[in-house]
Amino acid sequence: MRIDDESAGWTRFSSPASNERDAAELQELYQDAFTAWRKNPIAKRIVDITTDYCLGDGLAPNAPGMTGTFVDRFWNHPKNLMPVRMDELSDELARAGDLFLTLHRNPDDGMLYVRPIPKDRITAIETLPNDGEAEISYTETRGAMDTITWLSPNHPAAAEAPAVMLHYRVNGVVGAQMGESDLATLIPWLQRYSRMLEDRVRLHWRGDAADPLSLPGRGRG
User: Which of 21, 38, 117, 173 is the most exposed place for a label (fewest CB within 10 A)?
Assistant: First the structure.
């Protein structure tokens, strides 16, 4: 990984994958999808429908015995609150195409705490030399010189680490480690549709302004 001198603040995404987008493109796609979700009601509705379809009225894992007891404590722990958190995680996966979660272990009771990391802060993914799909570590960049390395559960030292990172992706292509947003192919068309509506509103506004009989308080009879 290195800092791109020509674009201060940008970090070149480090990946051996052949079909991976570069860092600037990954950042742009992530921000475009996030902005569309915030400002465009059609984009937001698409993500909402996806989450509603995937989660329905809610879901909860279960297992027998002590495993089930631990899972229930983890799922409903005040620092996790997974029933509440699932909607935002599903939305993020649809928006970003990737979900990066850190699991932090409490050494006193073994409880795990979940914390999501935004996709645009992950600047490198390391895999096993002989298996490009076996991810073993992730680099999170919080500033130009501030980086954190998170171990994957696949890493040989993961059992001793105080925290590990999980990576889930959707809409991935062969030869790329990052996924792509559900909105990625729709954003250009949503922008065109928005411009068309704006032009139509301006056209009607100019037409009304040019016709004094159409102004408020003026009748045509």
Answer: 38
**Distance in Å from the first CA to the final CA of the chain:** 74
Whether this prediction's pTM lies above 0.90 is answered by no
30 falls within a domain:
yes
Say whether both 166 and 61 belong to one domain: yes
SS3 147: strand
The tens digit of pLDDT for each residue in 69-124 reads: 999 999 999 999 999 999 999 999 999 999 999 999 999 988 999 999 999 999 99
Enclosing domain of residue 201: 186-221
| C-alpha–C-alpha distance, residues 21 and 184, integer Å | 13
- Can you tell me whether residue 173 is helix, strand or coil? coil
Does any domain span residue 78? yes
Alpha-carbon distance values, 129 to 5, 83, 126, 134, 148 (Å): 29, 38, 9, 9, 21
Residues 102, 42, single domain; the answer is: yes
